[in-house]
Amino acid sequence: VGFSGLRPVLAALEAGKVVALANKETLVAAGSIVTQVMKEHGGAILPVDSEHSAIFQCLLAAQGNEVEKIHLTASGGPFRTWDRQSIAAAKASQALRHPNWDMGAKVTIDSATMMNKGFEVIEARWLFDIAPSRINVVVHPESIIHSMVQFSDGSVLAQMSNPDMRIPIQYALSYPFRIDLNTSRISFPELMQLTFEKPDLKRFPCLQIAFDAVGKGGNATCMMNGANEIAVSAFLDDRIRFGAIPEIISETVSKCTFLKEPTIEDIFQTDAQSKEIAGAIVKKYLI
Question: 48 phi and psi, to 5 degrees?
Answer without folding.
Answer: -105, -30
